[in-house]
Design a protein that fits this description.
Two copies of one chain form a homodimer. Chain A is of the alpha/beta class. Chain A has two domains: 1-192 and 300-391, Rossmann fold; 194-299, Rna Polymerase Sigma Factor, Chain: A (Orthogonal Bundle). Chain A has helices spanning 138-151, 165-176, 195-209, 226-240, 243-249, 269-284, 287-299, 311-315, 335-347, 371-382; strands spanning 20-24, 31-32, 38-39, 42-49, 59-63, 90-91, 96-97, 102-106, 121-122, 127-128, 159-163, 183-187, 321-327, 352-357. The first copy, chain A, has an eight-stranded mixed β-sheet with strand order 1-4-8-5-11-12-13-14, with helices on both faces. In chain A, a hairpin with a 5-residue loop joins strand 2 (31-32) and strand 3 (38-39). At the A-B interface, helix 3, helix 4, helix 5, helix 6 and helix 7 of A face helix 3, helix 4, helix 5, helix 6 and helix 7 of B.
Amino acid sequence: MGKAIEHDQDGSTVGIVEKQAFTFAEQPNELALESGAGIGPVTIAYESCGTLNKDKTNVILVLHALSGDSHMAGFYKPEDPKPGWWDSMVGPGKGIDTDKYFVICSNILGSCMGSTGPASINPATGQEYAIDFPMITITDMVKAQKELMDHLGIKKILSVIGGSVGGMQVLEWCVRYPEMVVSAVPLATTCRHSALAIAFNEVARQSIMADPNWNNGGYYGGKKPDMGLAIARMIGHITYLSDESMRLKFGRKLQNRSALSFEFGAEFQVESYLQYQGNKFIERFDANSFLYITKAADYFDLAREYGKGSLVKAFSRCQSKFLVISYSSDWLYPTYQSKEMVKAMKKNDMDVSFCEIDAQWGHDAFLLPDSRLDNLISGFLRSLCHDAPAI
Amino acid sequence: MGKAIEHDQDGSTVGIVEKQAFTFAEQPNELALESGAGIGPVTIAYESCGTLNKDKTNVILVLHALSGDSHMAGFYKPEDPKPGWWDSMVGPGKGIDTDKYFVICSNILGSCMGSTGPASINPATGQEYAIDFPMITITDMVKAQKELMDHLGIKKILSVIGGSVGGMQVLEWCVRYPEMVVSAVPLATTCRHSALAIAFNEVARQSIMADPNWNNGGYYGGKKPDMGLAIARMIGHITYLSDESMRLKFGRKLQNRSALSFEFGAEFQVESYLQYQGNKFIERFDANSFLYITKAADYFDLAREYGKGSLVKAFSRCQSKFLVISYSSDWLYPTYQSKEMVKAMKKNDMDVSFCEIDAQWGHDAFLLPDSRLDNLISGFLRSLCHDAPAI
């Protein structure tokens, strides 16, 4: 890792990275899931950048969101048109500085980007799991990540960092494996999925399941439920933006025309944008994975199993130092939800910093290059130095 | 009209009402549409309550929203389980007092509740119009309402009142027929459909058009695109509520179970609610009408044709007195959009009152019984008495 390649815009890239895979829970073992079911074997795809120090104390675990993958930074090959999804944050001298830290990102359980999910082969049948894949939760994703850490011989994580569904995993890490997590940065996330967020996910799922090509999940090898998945993604994209960002980005501008054409189809730019996003998504994502991961997000309620639903009790086991970040125009996981978690942390006398970043780009803001976020995260990580041996 | 029936909860009902129909633009005439196309004949269904005074100066025109109809108040027959959609507002002694005013509500052009729309028979073919129905706009709806007023011999309207898409019609009335409109109450509405609102409508339309039963609009007599329409309605319902109202109404409560069942289907109450709303809608509404009316809403930009998109110029012809009302938790047509129209009105030295009602119920709030709204509207109407002869 680290070989600089030419098309990095700001000259600081982790260079070429390689997707790796770790398989565990091989027969007769299984990963015990929160639902009571089990699954095995489980493969987790992961990537890393930077160099692990000899004491293994400079590990940062980056956790991705719904449709993300392990490819957080760098390029698989020099001719790749785009780097990983968080290349603006992860690299030499960047917010998460790969000159200092060994940064790991793994693909979540249930996804379709290298880790075991509904599109994987069920060893019991030799066919894709499809909807025989067991229901999974954020807890299950984190348990699989813990297996990967054990495999890599990592006992302490300097920081777990992630936004959105990745932020839910951050929180789960801190309450489930408190002794391992030195610090945590949950970004643009929530302690429990709201009725509004569940509602959007449910409509998106209904859209997939209404597509006749979905065929009760059994579409592998046949026509895929592309229309349903595209609509699901369009719904998602609306929730990732904001009224303000859509007004600034699209307003009422027309697409490739100077006057209304009075026909169905994408007359307005915002319609064209959503259709483009929907169509792009179906090329890379599996509809069943979308169903399972959105369900996992909906199930997420950090407090559910910790002391009768009390968030204060849920955090009582935590030993991590926290930096909680929300975005002013994020209406999917609004700032008040971050404040709720900060309040519960403070009641436990935890070391927590909170920042609401003033940004118009809605929920998606956490994925966009922003020097304020870079500075917040790099400063926070530097503040941990007395906890972590120098590299 | 006015025969009291037993099951009116607060004892003040307009009683039994009758749906009527007016047909115009009969061959060889046509109603000229904004798109440049024409349509004829056009039937408009309408209902009225109260008594028209001899000078015809006590007319109030109520304008309904997307999925509404002419049945604003009262009952068609004594055994009807529910009264009209705005029975809480329209009746003897109510906010719009049928002891004083003659209140008319007509079904909008393009709908499926008695007025000409895509499910109507195209005289040129003897078949339903389906997607041969011409594209319509808010202007076209209002032009058809004007024909109805002419037919009824009404030259002055004491007040045009409506919310949401009905509010758009209110605004259109005031700028298109300024000499006819004494006063206007646009509720929970906007002067131009935002990118966010267009986005939701477009995804809803995509959901209908992705349903194979839609069959490019030609589903009459066959299987209807029920799945697509139900999903479209679910999307709509999310936008009619608010984060707060959904939290209070549903939170994370489960539907008919005490623990998560880890299965697809409606586990959470909010999911069950949306599915119920979707399924209820398909029984009464035509999918093609949904497509056309949402397009009309998306096209709505009051300023477009008036002086280079200037809202101030658009209102410059208005002679009406205004009461503009928004709701604090309406994120579909947020308060800032109402303030924008109030500002443009004030720049024209118009007589305008503005009120933001503090309510948690989102966009739907304008349809819910609320004594504050009753008082605002009845007070506003009383203030017009010096303009209107006593009845």
